[in-house]
Design goal:
Number of strands: 29
Protein name: Leucine-rich repeat, immunoglobulin-like domain and transmembrane domain-containing protein 1
Structural class: alpha/beta
Helix content: 10-25%
Main location: other
Number of helices: 6
Distance between the termini: 141 Å
CATH class of one domain: Mainly Beta
Membrane topology: Single-pass type I membrane protein; Single-pass membrane protein
CATH topology of one domain: Immunoglobulin-like
Shape: rod-shaped
Strand order of the largest sheet: 1-2-3-4-5-6-7-8
Largest sheet: 8 strands, parallel
Organism: Polioptila caerulea (Blue-grey gnatcatcher)
Function: Photoreceptor synaptic protein essential for normal vision. Involved in synapse formation in cone photoreceptor cells.
CATH superfamily of one domain: Immunoglobulins
Strand content: 25-35%
Radius of gyration: 47 Å
Length: 588
């Protein structure tokens, strides 16, 4: 028996349908819903066609008991979802037509119930993607058709949907491009709808990447920095699609900074959290979260603030491990924490303004230096500062003295007579550091009370400024003393050799001069002997007489040569520049 209902004013399915009905057609009516018990008595029903009604939803029990049903046509309705689990009640179902509805998605569980469907039309809906489980089910059935005896195929209708061509469609595109002869498509030339760059492009022409869950990359788990610095915390992620990065604090406090996003050349997405002028309130755990539709991953970075520029700073965490327990200024902290001394003071052209600091010999306590921090994940820059007379202190060197004292010297060509220098020194690796203020105009100081065979760190800078890394030096007292002793030995040897060579020559010259003087008194020499040529070499770096190069040949009398021999002629004497027109100093 076939029953046809097509009254356009009908709002509910008819009741008392004959139980021997095998084909029921309810078409072009105003029915919006189907009661759950409407078809329970139709055990012989094989074809249920309900096209072009106004159905908006279906209950899971609507098709209960229809075990002989082979075709279910629901095209042309307003269905936004379909009860896929109800297919378990229709084991003989082979055709399911959901064409021209409002379906927006298909749940992954649908793959369990469509294995017996040989004709499935999902075209002209609002589907943007299909679950991978459903694609995998179809792909696994490609090699074995449902009915091996009659060469039947699986027919799929997927056209006219707003497909989003991203990684979620990777499996589907691959499935369509490498389809089996056992599967046929109503329209095989499917097109992308979004993104805009791929709109209208056929699936066969796009190259998509497989989806990947987000992975968070941080090369440092703990960061230490000084109070008032600017800290940049970096967090990177990989994944397909590119995950979204977000920051939050573990304690729920509000972030005191700005976030900048960038993508590196290798495709990694980075999020940089900038914390300007950090305070103790910024200490704590920071969480970087990477998220895409496959899941989310988090990474933790611990920030520790360890320095204070003034005694009046209110430290709410003063009892916490790693904070300052004594008075210290930013200058001492920088000297201890530079690249040679501390890892995170970046050399810049500006330095913070500091107070007068402690008096000569003040003892200061410094915090431990973070050992696991990475300069790529932490950038500490000084706060608003004053401009230093750039590179005023240069060539810091240690001169050997004794194993308990050393002499520290440096050059300051741009310094004035009123410039005061500060010397900061400490046993390398210890927390105690001392400061000595040098008298104005001096560029040398002796440090007493050092420990023998001990490594020290020492920095020199203009008072009130932060020393730079080139103004610091690391030395060991035993090495300095050894080097000083070696230098003294070299000096003694050089002087001894000079004396052995110079004294006999001096005696010979003096005897010759004395002999000539005696002969002058008793013997009158011929005119051609009274004059002689003497070769002189200039000692002065000053200007030479014009037109004279190399050796100087000058004609002198014996009295003149004797006078010249008595002038300053030591090679070790400091050469004094001469102005043009003045005589240079010579030695014979």
């Amino acid at each position: 028996r076939t029953v046809l209902c097509n009254d356009p004013e009908m709002t509910l399915p008819p009741v008392n349908i004959p139980v021997d009905t095998t084909k029921l057609r309810i078409e072009k009516t105003a029915i919006r819903r189907v009661p759950g018990e409407a078809f329970h008595l139709l055990h012989n029903l094989e074809y249920l066609w309900m096209p072009y009604n106004s159905l908006a939803s279906l209950s899971g029990i609507t098709f209960k008991g229809l075990r002989r049903l082979q075709e279910l046509r629901l095209d042309g309705n307003n269905l936004i979802s379909f009860p896929w689990e109800s297919l378990a009640s229709m084991p003989q179902l082979r055709l399911l037509d959901l064409h021209n509805n409002e379906l927006t998605s298909i749940p992954p569980d649908a793959a369990r119930y469509v294995k017996n469907i040989t004709y499935l039309d999902l075209s002209s809906n609002k589907l943007m993607t299909l679950p991978q489980a459903l694609i995998a089910t179809w792909a696994s059935l490609q090699a074995v058709p449902y009915f091996p005896s009659d060469n039947s195929k699986i027919i799929l209708g997927l056209q006219d949907n707003p497909w989003v061509c991203d990684c979620s469609l990777y499996e589907m595109v691959h499935f369509l491009n490498f389809q089996s002869p056992n599967i046929a498509f109503i329209e095989p030339r499917l097109k992308c709808f979004t993104p805009r760059s791929l709109a209208g492009v056929f699936f066969s022409q796009v190259e998509l990447r497989k989806c990947q869950s987000p992975v968070v990359h941080t090369s440092v788990a703990k960061v230490k920095t000084i109070l008032g610095s600017t800290v940049l915390l970096r967090c990177g992620t990989t994944g397909v699609p590119i995950p979204e990065l977000s920051w939050r604090r573990a304690d729920g406090a509000q972030l005191n900074g700005t976030v900048h996003q960038e993508i590196s050349s290798d495709g990694m997405s980075w999020s940089i959290l900038g914390l300007p002028v950090v305070s103790y309130l910024d200490s704590g755990e920071y969480i970087c979260k990477a998220k895409n539709f496959l899941g989310a991953t988090e990474a933790f970075i611990s920030l520790i603030i360890t320095d204070s520029d003034s005694e009046s700073t209110d430290d709410p965490n003063s009892s916490a491990k790693g904070t300052w327990s004594g008075k210290a200024s930013g200058m001492e902290a920088a000297a201890y924490n530079d690249k040679l001394v501390a890892r995170y003071v970046i050399t810049t052209s500006t330095v913070p303004t500091l107070g007068a600091g402690a008096g000569t010999g003040d003892s200061l306590l410094l915090p431990d230096t973070a050992q696991d921090s990475n300069a790529q994940n932490l950038l500490v820059s000084p706060t608003t500062g004053q401009q230093e007379p750039e590179r005023m202190v240069r060539s810091v060197r240690v001169l050997g003295d004794t194993d308990q004292s050393i002499t520290l010297a440096w050059k300051a060509p741009m310094a004035k007579n009123t410039t005061v220098f500060s010397v900061l020194y400490a046993v390398f690796g210890e927390r105690d550091m001392r400061r000595i203020n040098v008298e104005p105009g001096k560029t040398k100081v002796t440090l007493y009370g050092l420990l023998p065979k001990t490594k020290y760190i020492v920095c020199v800078c203009v008072k009130g400024l932060i020393p730079r890394k080139e103004q610091c030096i690391i030395f060991s007292t035993d090495e300095v003393v050894s080097a000083g002793g070696t230098q003294k030995l070299i000096n003694v040897v050089v002087i001894s050799v000079a004396c052995v060579i110079a004294v006999p020559l001096t005696l010979v010259v003096c005897c010759g001069a004395l002999k000539r003087r005696c002969k002058k008194c008793f013997v009158r020499k011929p005119k051609d002997v009274q004059e002689s040529y003497v070769t002189f070499e200039s000692l002065s770096p000053g200007a030479k007489a014009k037109g004279v190069e190399g050796e100087y040949l000058t004609r002198h009398t014996p009295d003149e040569s004797n006078r010249l021999l008595s002038a300053r002629s030591s090679v070790d004497s400091e050469a004094i520049p001469k102005t043009e027109g003045q005589p240079n100093e010579y030695f014979c």
